Amino acid sequence: MKHLDIKIEAFLKLGEYLRKKNIDSTIHSLILKTQNNNRWFVYKNCVNALKIWGDTLRKENILKWSSKYNFAYKKSKKIGIIMAGNIPIVGFHDLMCLLFSNHIGIVKTSSSDPFLIPFLCSKLFEFEPKLAERVIFKKKIDFVDAIIATGNNITIKHINEKFHSYPSILRGTRSSIAILNGKESVDELKLLSKDILTYFGFGCRSITKIYVPYKYDFTLLKKILKEKSESITLIEYLNNFKKNKAINEIIKNNFHIAGKLIIIESKNINAEISSINYEYYSNMDWINEEIESKINSIQCMVGKVNKGNFVKFGEAQKPNLWDYADNIDTVKFLLSL
Fold it and tell me: CB count, 10 Å around CB of 94?
């Protein structure tokens, strides 16, 4: 279909642009502006998010993803998209799904990330000007036919109250986990440290809970996490670290210090910034039951587990186009309207 080929070509050109070795002056200025607006969005993390999208927008990935669907023209509707702002560019996948459908997006970016996504759209519109007719950025969402929203549980509750009668995808707070067997190599644990510390742990795909076998030796993991976390200088993160360390000392939790990260024994899968939780397990049957009981709170699972839903160490922060948030197929939803 010609209209589909045009869209694919536009996104391929965007991918090529983002894969350029050197950051151009426009992106450089926007990243600095983004960092000034939200100190958690440090320059390095913004660049990382852009590079991941550059690697994602390759021909083999787009064709594998898009070939699953029938994008034949259907009636166009107005879709409200309310984006999260926990990590840079996190709402761009919803926008891509919408642009491959025939709908119009009424888009509200997060106040934490108001610059980068509109810029990516402007580049996309340079490559295919007709797409510009399909995206409208607004500060308030009204008069739409359906809604896609992502945020914390409190935000989603308010959105649900306002749009409860609309077809919707509403995504609340989720966390990600890793299963360790105690035989991981140094390289695998280094990759795990990226899954934990990239974006300071704010992403729903950031590992916030690890499961370890009884009598697990934390020595190597602590060493690697110490090396990885020692480079963190953001004062907001360091204040969280000092506060969490003091609280856990006062309440006498079992915990380990790994540089500027706290590893706390806890049954919770959600963790405070600057910390992750751990829990011991005795066998995989228990792990399977644990996952089943918390499946609606888990976004991503990492480990050398012979199970389809697990991803490799180091891959948690690099979702494929077909790895939908909350396991809800956004394109299928859009095409059903």
Answer: 26
**Overall domain count for the chain:** 2
Q: Are 35 and 43 in contact (CB under 8 A)?
A: yes
Q: Say yes or no: 179 and 289 in one domain.
A: yes
| Domain end position, chosen among 173, 193, 224 | 173
Q: Which of 134, 157, 173 is the last residue of a domain?
A: 173
**Residue-wise pLDDT tens digits, 96-140:** 999 999 899 999 999 999 999 999 999 999 999 999 999 999 999
Give domain status of residue 183, yes or no.
Answer: yes
d(CA 16, CA 264): 42
State the angle between helix axes of 92-100 and 116-127 in degrees (0 to 180), rounded to the nearest 10.
30
Residues 37 and 116: beta-carbon distance below 8 Å:
no
- Domain membership of residue 328 (yes or no) is no
Instruction: Give the integer Cα–Cα distance in Å for 305 and 294.
Output: 17
Backbone angles phi, psi at 81, to 5 degrees: -120, 115
The residue segments making up the domain with residue 187 are: 175-311
Query: What tens digit of pLDDT does each residue of 191-228 get?
Result: 999 999 999 999 999 999 999 999 999 999 999 999 99
For helices 25-37 and 116-127, angle between their N-to-C axes, nearest 10 degrees? 150
User: Which whole-number Å values give the CA distances from 140 to 45, 79, 159, 208, in the listed order?
Assistant: 28, 13, 12, 32
Whichever domain contains 83, its CATH number is: 3.40.605.10
**320 in any annotated domain:** no
CA distance 151 to 129: 30
